[in-house]
Design brief:
- The protein is an all-alpha fold.
- It has one domain.
- The protein has one helix and no strands.
- The longest helix has 43 residues.
- The chain is rod-shaped, with a radius of gyration of 20 Å.
Length: 45
């Protein structure tokens, strides 16, 4: 049972890291979208 728990803990750690990576990517893309929108607004004024 201990080995299974260890494997589960490793899987949780791996997935948590994956989720954090995706969230950072999402934040970066969101900032890029905002910058593009700002540039578009300035260029059309």
């Amino acid at each position: 049972a201990t080995r299974v728990k260890l494997e589960l803990d490793q899987e949780i750690t791996r997935r948590t890291g994956l989720i954090q990576m995706l969230m950072r990517r999402f934040d970066r893309l969101t900032r890029q979208i905002e910058e593009i929108q700002d540039q578009h607004i300035k260029s059309t004024q």
